Every structure is written in structure tokens, then in C-alpha cells.
Amino acid sequence: MDRNIIAVLVKNHFGVLARVASMFRRRGFNIDTLTVGETENPEYSRITATFRGDDAIKNQIIRQLMKMPDVVHISELEKSSSVSRELVLIKIKNNKDLKQDIMSVIDIFRAKVVDYGTQAMTIEITGESSKIDAFIDLIKEYGIIEICRTGIVSLQRGADSIISNIK
Amino acid sequence: MKISGAEILVRTLIEQNVDVVFGYPGGQVLDIYDKLYSHQDEIKHILTAHEQGASHAADGYARATGKVGVVIATSGPGATNLTTGIATAYLDSVPIVAITGNVSCPLIGRDSFQEVDITGITMPITKHNFFVNRVSKLADTVREAFRIAKSGRPGPVLIDIPKDIQTSLCDYEPAEPVEADKKNAAETGIEEAVRLINESEKPYIYCGGGVITGSATEEILALAEKTDAVIGCSFMGISAIPSDNERFLGMQGMHGHYASSMAQHNSDLIIAVGARFSDRATGNKSKYAPHSKIIHIDIDNAEIDKNIAVTCGLCGDVKLTLQKIIGAVDNKKHPDWLSEVDYYKKEEYRHIVKSDDMNPVNIIETVNECADEDTVIATDVGQHQMWAAQNCKFSKPRKFVSSGGLGTMGFGLGAAIGSQIGSGAKSILITGDGSFGMCLNELTTASYYNIPVVIVIMNNGVLGMVRQWQTLFYDKHYSNTVLDRKTDFIKLADAFGMKGYRCTEIPDFKEKLQSALSGDSPVLIECLIDKDEMVLPMLPPGGSMDDIIVERLGG
């Protein structure tokens, strides 16, 4: 099934995230990732949600969201016309013998080491989900201790902003 | 001059033309009740026996009038007792505003006495809800709650007001009552809908509750006339179309009329108006309307393609959208279709065996004979509800008050009280011994306020609808459905201060009902019926319209 990314502009009210999450949960929609933060205008927050589903599911999610009084606007972010990134911190076991191998993987993926110790190192990587998945796949064999992913953030290409859609 | 939050609340309610509220006082709404005391000449407060009864009364008031019903309860258990009523209103798109008190802001989140997170609890069963954390926002929050409750697809809105917000002082600027959002016809899809209607040879109009909410009865009749269509309805659409209209086939679906279910199944075009293709209305969705194209008109865009993927979806006010369509479609005659439908009607009558017994159909027909066009018929949930849905006759909308979506047993008595107060007409509650047992405490409300509600209990001594399923699909394992209770409903009526009668014959029932309807007081009439009466027709679970059971199976 297709992966969909939507940006939901919501009023910056107490409890809005709970309302949006509650709608996804009770109607049985599965969220892959969800990020939320204030926008350039403190009146609004922006929720970026990714989920898998066909057009029927996508349309139903968008229509259910649009019914909510706190939801101001929804943009669908198509792969071809938007940029999407995810930031991930990965802590792996440090291994003297394999250090060169690890460093070359990090180089190739333009990741960087943000914490280093004799027992473990923490790597930061930013990119599209497919790149991150590939990186994790490679680094796995060195022994992952823990991973923390931010979820996807995404902006439309070009000069428009989501807030400019508000009538 | 600064006034208290409680005073602001009551003044804002008056601003919204609220003249009656239902509720129950308690610790965290004392200040609100103090102001209701001061304003008792402007707002009448109806004290119920239980907050659930108050929530159903506000719901019944809203269904019978089209206005917003208001209910007030205290924090904690008062608030949680509203939830069944709020969920009932939510599933049936009924505009109510529920106001709850809560503990003072500094005590919130500390599991204080009678503290409950009612905005969290009601998030999935309200159209929207508010927690008021500043008194300066209170008046506008109340106004916004009324606007949301009645705009678009109506629904319940809850406002939670901590006690310190009720006592805080603030300036108050009066405002005009808020209007619902402006209604608009669908902007896209009209042309396609018109083309589909013009091409159809066998059109069927499926009316949902939105026809009542959207006051679109005349438009439905005009469209049916112009396009030579027949009309059916969902449970929620009952009373939208006058029962005696010759194009009207009655309710479709699980316990629907044979003729409307078959006509829908064999139509080539279904025009669904203000309906949501509930599983009870459609039967098995994968076998639903196999030969039909579907036009769906609804004010709620999220309903389009939600349950059934449609050929043409139109999002807009049903009345205005229908007007556009009616103006554009061709005049048509479909004699073959009407004679096919006639055949279904005859088939339906063939299965009806008439008798003079004290049976459910005769009870409902007696109610039809005694009620006038303004009488509100309220019901509880179960077999009696389906018998009423199948057989009650209506000539005006908003005269059938029943919990469709949630199927709330115990809804009826509170709702009958609320709808009587709202409409000013007599209410008849048709209930069963099971449902009535759930919330019969509201007899005290009917009795105290001398509300002319006639309560007709079909007493079969069992939980009839569940028993029917056990008979048909569970090898007659009557697990916990044989009540055999010792309740004496006549003594019960007496204990609550009202008249009660037990009837075993139809002529006696008719006499008692007529006399009750000519009086001004609540009356209870118990009708004894057989425990093995069944609601037929019935679509078996997972079945389509083809699998409809019309006759009592052996045994």
C-alpha cells in the first residue's frame, strides 16, 4: 500500500494532538509517524502524519480530520512535489576491530558521530525514510543498542506555505 | 460591571434563547444552580432522577423541536452519567450542549474528589468539547458550543467549567444569539447526479435522518414525483415522509419492510439523502444493491464513500442540493418499475396474518388510532422499537423519537419527557419491560412535573430481541433473557404517584389509551404480550436483501 504524507494545520490549542490521535485510533487508521510543533505563526501548530493506505483510506482520513473544529487546513504532500526528512539517532556498540568499517558506512551515508565512547557510539543521520532504512540495515550487524526516530517532517516545494491556504 | 462566571453562563444561555434546561445539581455546579435560582423566570430547570435521564431528556427535546437541548451536571459521577446520553445524541446527530462542573483549576489533575477528565472521556462521542480555563473565554465558548452543535451535521458539544471559573469575576458583553453556519448546496456533482437520474429506469430514494434535520420532506416528495421514484427510509428517516404517501414504502434494512428492502435491492439507482449506509440499513455491504448506481447527498463530506463507495457524492445542504437537482431533471414515468414495486407490496401483505389478539402490531395500530398528528412517539430499544418503526404512522417530521445509532435501552422515558416539554404535544412512550427497567426512575420526573406522557409497556417477561436471536441463531439457549421479574408495574406507577393500568385485550387498551391522552397527567399502561412474538421481516446477520426472513420459522 502507498505511503501517504499529510500536513495538518491545527489551532494551537491545549489537547489538539490528543483529539487528532484519538480520531485515528477510534476509526482504526494506523499512523506510521506523527510529528507536531508550532509553526511560524504561534496561533497554529503543524502536524505531519504518515500512514499507509489506498485512496479510499486516505480520503476518509482527510475528510474526518477536516470535520474537526480545530483543524484549519490539510495538505497532501506528494513525493514529487515535496521534501521530506527524518532525523534518527542510533546508538551502536563500539568495536575497535570494526571501527574503520563503521566509519566508512557513516561517511557514505553522510551521517555523523555525535557521541563517542569505548563501549558505544551514537550516530545522527538525516534523510528520507528509504535512506535511513538502508543505513539501519547496514549498521545492524555492528550491534544496535537503541534507536530514536523523530518521524517524518515534510514541506511542499516552491514558495507557498500551508498557512497561506487559510481563507 | 464584573459578574461571576456562573452568571455569565446563565446569561449566555438566555442569549441563545434557551428557556428550559435539564439537569441535576451537585458540589461543583452549586454556583451555576445559584444563578439558575435567580433566573428561574427566564430559564426553567427540570430536575430529573438521574443525569442520564436528563441527557436523554435534552436529546428528546432537541429531536422533537430541532432546537439545541441543554443538560447540566456536576463533576465526576454527574459528568460520567451523561456519557450514554451524549453518545446517543452523537450517533444520531442530535444537537445538545452538555455543561459540566469540574473541580477548581488548581485541583485539576490531582485526582481530587469528584474529579474526572470529562473532556477526555467524551472526545470520541462529541462533535467537539471545551475545557474552560479562563473566565474571560466563557461567554464566547458557550456561543461557539451552540454554533457547533447546530451547524452542518448537528451533534453534541460539551463544556467543562471548573468551579473557580464559575466564581471568578469578569466583564460580560451581551451578544445576539449565534446563527448556525450558512447552508450551501453542493457545488460539484449536480450535473452528474442529474444525468444518472435521467438515465435511471428504476429510481429509489433512500431517506436518512438528514432529511428531517435538513427539512427536506417537500423536496424529496417533489423529486419522487418528477422522476417517478419510490421512497424508502432508514430507521432515522422515519417520520420524514408522511406514512400515507403512496410512493413511500417504509423503513428498509434489517427489520425493514419487505417492499422497501426489495425495491432498493432491485433498483438501478439509489438516491441516498442525509443517510449514512449504516450496517442496519444495508445488510451485508458486499452484497448491497448489486445492480444500482448510487447518488449520495449529505452535508457531512466524511460520510461520502465511508461505508459504501458511491457513483456520485454530493456534499451540501440536502434541501438546497435537492432543489438544484429537481430544477434540472427531466419529467419521467416508469410504469414498469412502479408495477414491480406494487408486486413487492402485495408480497409483503401476503405475509401479514390479521387477528384481534393483544399482539404488538395491534397495540401499535391502536396507538395510531388514538394519537393525533402532533403526538410524539418515543421508544426505547428492542423488539417494541422495531414494531413501532414498522407500524407507527406519521404525517409530520420530528414525531418519532428513538435511539437509532447507539440503540440505547433506557433512552425512552427521559426522551419522551424532553420531547413533550419541547413540543408541547402529548408524548407516547412505547417501551418494553427490559428497556423500561433500565431508567424507570424518571417516572418521578414525569410525576413531579405532571408531564402528560403515556407510557405503553409491552411486557413479554423476556428480553425479546435478544431472545429472538437466541431462538433463530443460538439453538434456543435463552441465556439471561428470561426476566420473570416480580415487578408489579401498576403498583410501581402508584408508588410514583401516577395512574397505572394493565391490559390484556385490545378494546380495553384502546379505552385506557384514549382516556390517558385526553388527560393532562402521566399514565402508565402495561400490555401483556406473548414472549415468542418476533420482529419480522428480518435480514439474518451477514445476509443481503435476498435473504430476508418474512415468516415465522418452525417452532
Concise overview:
The complex is a heterodimer of chains A (about 170) and B (about 550). By secondary structure, chain A is an alpha+beta fold.
Structural write-up:
- The complex is a heterodimer of chains A (about 170) and B (about 550).
- By secondary structure, chain A is an alpha+beta fold.
- Chain A folds into two domains: about 5-75, ACT domain (Alpha-Beta Plaits, 2-Layer Sandwich); about 85-155, ACT-like. Chain A, domain 2 (Alpha-Beta Plaits), CATH 3.30.70.
- Helix content of chain A is about 25%, strand content about 40%.
- In chain A, strands 5, 6, 7, 8 and 9 form a five-stranded antiparallel beta sheet that branches. A four-stranded antiparallel beta sheet of chain A has the order 2-3-1-4, covered by helices on one side.
- The radius of gyration of chain A is 19 Å and the shape is elongated.
- The two termini of chain A are about 35 Å apart.
- The mean pLDDT of chain A is about 95.
- Chain B folds into three domains: about 1-170, Rossmann fold, CATH 3.40.50.970; about 190-350, Rossmann fold; about 360-535, Thiamin diphosphate (ThDP)-binding fold, Pyr/PP domains (Rossmann fold).
- In chain B, about 40% of the residues lie in helices and about 15% in strands.
- Chains A and B meet through α1 and α2 of A and loops of B.
Set down the secondary structure blueprint:
The complex is a heterodimer of chains A (167) and B (555).
Chain A: E1 3-11, H1 16-26, E2 31-38, E3 44-52, H2 55-66, E4 71-76, E5 82-93, H3 99-108, E6 112-116, E7 120-127, H4 129-139, E8 144-149, E9 153-156
Antiparallel strand pairs in A: 1-3, 1-4, 2-3, 5-7, 5-8, 5-9, 6-7
Chain B: E1 2-4, H1 5-15, E2 20-23, H2 30-38, E3 44-47, H3 51-65, E4 69-73, H4 77-80, H5 83-91, E5 96-102, H6 118-121, E6 128-131, H7 138-150, E7 157-162, H8 163-167, E8 169-171, H9 190-199, E9 203-207, H10 209-213, H11 217-227, E10 230-233, E11 248-251, H12 258-266, E12 269-273, H13 279-282, E13 293-298, E14 312-315, H14 318-328, H15 335-350, H16 360-370, E15 376-379, H17 383-391, E16 400-401, H18 411-423, E17 427-432, H19 433-438, H20 443-448, E18 453-459, H21 464-473, H22 489-496, E19 499-503, H23 506-518, E20 523-528
Parallel strand pairs in B: 2-3, 2-4, 4-5, 5-7, 6-7, 9-10, 9-12, 10-11, 12-13, 13-14, 15-16, 15-17, 17-18, 18-20, 19-20
Antiparallel strand pairs in B: 1-8
